[in-house]
Amino acid sequence: MSTPVIEKGKDGFYHPSTEEQITALVKKASQENLEIRCRGAAHSLARAIYTDPGPGEPPLPNEVSEQKPPLGPNLNIMFDQYAKLVWIDQQAGIIEVEAGIHLGYDPEDPTGTSTLENSLLYQIFTKGFTLSDLGGISHQTVSGFLMTGSSGGSLWYGIEENIIGLCIIDGNGEAEWFTNEQDEFGAVVLSLGLLGIVSKIRLKLEPNYFIYGQQITYPTTQPACPIDLFGPGTADKPSLENYLLKTPYSRILWWPQEKVERVVIWEATRGAAMPVFDPAPYEEFADNNFLSNVEQLGASMLFTMLGNSKFGVVWQKLKPSFAEFRHLTELSCGSGFFARLFAAIITFILQVIGFLLTLFLMTFPAILHALYAPVVDVLQPLTKNGKGQLFMDYTYSSLPMDNGANDVLMGTEFTEIWIPLADTQRAMQLLDKMFKEGKFKATGYYSTELYAGKQNSCWLSPAYERNVFRIDFFWFSTNEGNPAARDGFFSQFWDRLKAEQIPFRLHWAKFLPEYEYGQWAAYFRSQYPRWDDFMALRQKRDPKNIFLNDYWSLHLFGTKKDALPGLPADITGS
Fold first, then answer.
1. Is the torsion defined by CA of 486, 492, 495, 499 positive or negative?
2. Do residues 42 and 67 make contact, with C-beta atoms less than 8 angstroms apart?
3. What sign results for the dihedral spanned by CA atoms 341, 344, 346, 348?
4. Domain with 484 in it
């Protein structure tokens, strides 16, 4: 007897609780020629996550943290009711998890079901286990993290080492297990939702280890900087490539702007899990929740003013930040009338101050720009000798070093460029030249993130069969314009790297070029040795294109989905 199709929720999502219900939804999509896709924590761009909207319906803004699906008949799934963890062999550390389990706590979960206690990392921590590596945040679902090829900053460890198998449902509604001993495992484990819907994942865990590290901020100039950022290294200073090779976990925030010129170096190593342990967590902002939120609200105001030209636009864009600050203040003060009253009063006071300050600085932009460097110096001061931030903590808490950054107050979007590790010096010299010549047009007002990634065997991974140097060009989400457009902020880096023949691949869940789609599809194809194998498998597993939307069709094939039947077998660009 077939499983009946569950009803769509009031939020526009289907919320299955069993594999059979997921299969029924896939069969419905196939029979009715509809698209079907799944969301995790919505940390990818919206159009990379969801289906296309229905005929005549508006497209979603192509932004991260878009919590609502598009309107129309297509099927969008949320896995909040499909997030169990089962121990297959507790002694050996082998588990099976359903696709919707979050790695850590997701504070922006619209259903409110995500907690620290029901997260994957916390549940395995209590049994003495952890994962080999984690990204900068742990809000994601485990399936979303894998399907998009997300990765932590390490050349020593990779989460792919923990994956031993996964079950995925194809376009005909058939569930099939793949293990890491099969060739096609390299395709399905990072497949962007295009080869089917992941149902379950089996993981081989590592025994718990603790994280010990430091964060230090140095000028980029020599001799002050402990890393030779742009050269081959010296007897007493490693090149950036060698630093990344020798450091178990690392992340560098580069502020290249004139009169700022500094790097924030976060580095960590593993240590034994001591029987008596008093953790000292990493603190990205102030060590007090209220002060941390004030600091992030101030940063939101600064970057929003710098990224826009009109006061009215700035103030409108800041409203969600003040609303989020009020919400966070209520949470930090506990529930009840007085907590809500205090949050309302303090938010109102800050809004009045913010309104006057914003009006003044937007009226006199020269003052705003003159204040930029001193303000960054306050927010990210240089480290005095012996005064770096030291931390020691549980893996789940401090290895994702950006968990303390609020997604609304510090709304950050970026393109993530993965370059062969051997080209690190060439890439850094090129960026240094671009930043010095282009000034704020090239540097922007935000930092640039530098880190590494370990090679793996996933066919569409930007780290497929090579270690990589990764560059994230940050874009504050309230900035004017589309950074991925032909004249957008990111295009200067994509085009220049391509012109200089420095090969690169892009993180699929972050911004991709939104121009010259055919040429970029051809370029992507040239960078992945098993591209054609993946596309052949996609056609086999999704014959009706129910998992494919226009976004992925444009970026992978250079054309919208409705033009695919006439697509030449050999894409040469347009």
1. positive
2. yes
3. negative
4. 210-283+386-506
d(CA 131, CA 160): 10
Measured from the Cβ of residue 401, the count of other Cβ atoms closer than 10 Å reads: 26
Residues 270 and 297 in one domain: no
* Average pLDDT value for the chain: 95
DSSP run (H or E) holding 95? strand 94-98
The last residue of one of the domains, among 171, 190, 207, is 207
185 and 89 belong to one structural domain: yes
In a domain, 14, yes or no: no
Q: Using CA atoms, how far apart are residues 534 and 209, in angstroms rounded to an integer? A: 36
Per run of 10 residues, the mean pLDDT along the chain (length 574 residues) is 92 98 98 98 96 96 94 98 98 98 97 98 97 96 97 96 98 98 98 98 97 97 95 96 98 98 98 88 89 95 97 97 95 85 96 97 97 94 90 96 95 98 99 98 98 98 98 97 98 98 98 98 98 98 97 97 64 36
Give tens-digit pLDDT for 153-183. Answer: 999 999 999 999 999 999 999 999 999 999 9
Domain edge (last residue) among 346, 379, 412: 379
How far apart CA 217 and CA 376 sit, in angstroms, is 12
| CA gap 120, 144 in Å, rounded | 13
The CATH code of the domain that includes 433 is 3.40.462.10
pTM for the whole structure = 0.95
- Domain membership flag for residue 573: no
For residue 355, how many other CB atoms are within 10 A of its CB? 14
